[in-house]
């Protein structure tokens, strides 16, 4: 791994985002706007407090998955990625550069969503604020890593978008947002146990119910981090050097 190449890649991606205000606005603002919308959809504060922690981890995950997968695919279809891979550059260096650039976007995105949720929307948490921010940021980074991974298997931007119902929606349905995981059919509960978004939702919910940092929260954050790293490694292993 060459950190110089990774940092150079991150600077290039950030410069591209700076010249793409629509994508940047979607990445930074959309999760916060959706949280505001859902606050008034649920109307009652108790109902919002019940689902808001899961949504605070889920929405950045969804947005970053979509933006990362499409942006990376655009690099391949334009030939930029292919030209970079003809240089003595490791695939992991490129993916780490992408991940680093999008991680900075994630931090700003999550900071806005958390700040608005805790202040204007009145979300109450029992756990430490810094841990809430950390878990939400890891959730967004997990979406970024999975987006980088699936972009290796798509040839067009439309195909990249098609991965959302195949990869993301099953995790949304089984993460415990709609019904507790232990109340699902047994085979679905077992399946949810291997899906990283389940641990992201569990960690956010844990922070609203318990003061301090318990063993369960540490385990959930560890699983999220491991899934993030595994997605980056698999993305580097499957990244093609040629467009077609």
Automatic annotation (TrEMBL):
<dbReference type="GO" id="GO:0140359">
    <property type="term" value="F:ABC-type transporter activity"/>
</dbReference>
<feature type="transmembrane region" description="Helical">
    <location>
        <begin position="129"/>
        <end position="153"/>
    </location>
</feature>
<dbReference type="Pfam" id="PF01061">
    <property type="entry name" value="ABC2_membrane"/>
</dbReference>
<feature type="domain" description="ABC transmembrane type-2">
    <location>
        <begin position="14"/>
        <end position="242"/>
    </location>
</feature>
<feature type="transmembrane region" description="Helical">
    <location>
        <begin position="217"/>
        <end position="239"/>
    </location>
</feature>
<dbReference type="InterPro" id="IPR047817">
    <property type="entry name" value="ABC2_TM_bact-type"/>
</dbReference>
<dbReference type="GO" id="GO:0043190">
    <property type="term" value="C:ATP-binding cassette (ABC) transporter complex"/>
</dbReference>
<protein>
    <recommendedName>
        <fullName>Transport permease protein</fullName>
    </recommendedName>
</protein>
<feature type="transmembrane region" description="Helical">
    <location>
        <begin position="54"/>
        <end position="73"/>
    </location>
</feature>
<keyword id="KW-1003">Cell membrane</keyword>
<dbReference type="InterPro" id="IPR051449">
    <property type="entry name" value="ABC-2_transporter_component"/>
</dbReference>
<keyword id="KW-0812">Transmembrane</keyword>
<dbReference type="InterPro" id="IPR000412">
    <property type="entry name" value="ABC_2_transport"/>
</dbReference>
<keyword id="KW-0472">Membrane</keyword>
<dbReference type="InterPro" id="IPR013525">
    <property type="entry name" value="ABC2_TM"/>
</dbReference>
<feature type="transmembrane region" description="Helical">
    <location>
        <begin position="160"/>
        <end position="179"/>
    </location>
</feature>
<keyword id="KW-0046">Antibiotic resistance</keyword>
<dbReference type="GO" id="GO:0046677">
    <property type="term" value="P:response to antibiotic"/>
</dbReference>
<comment type="similarity">
    <text>Belongs to the ABC-2 integral membrane protein family.</text>
</comment>
<keyword id="KW-0813">Transport</keyword>
<feature type="transmembrane region" description="Helical">
    <location>
        <begin position="94"/>
        <end position="123"/>
    </location>
</feature>
<feature type="transmembrane region" description="Helical">
    <location>
        <begin position="24"/>
        <end position="42"/>
    </location>
</feature>
<keyword id="KW-1133">Transmembrane helix</keyword>
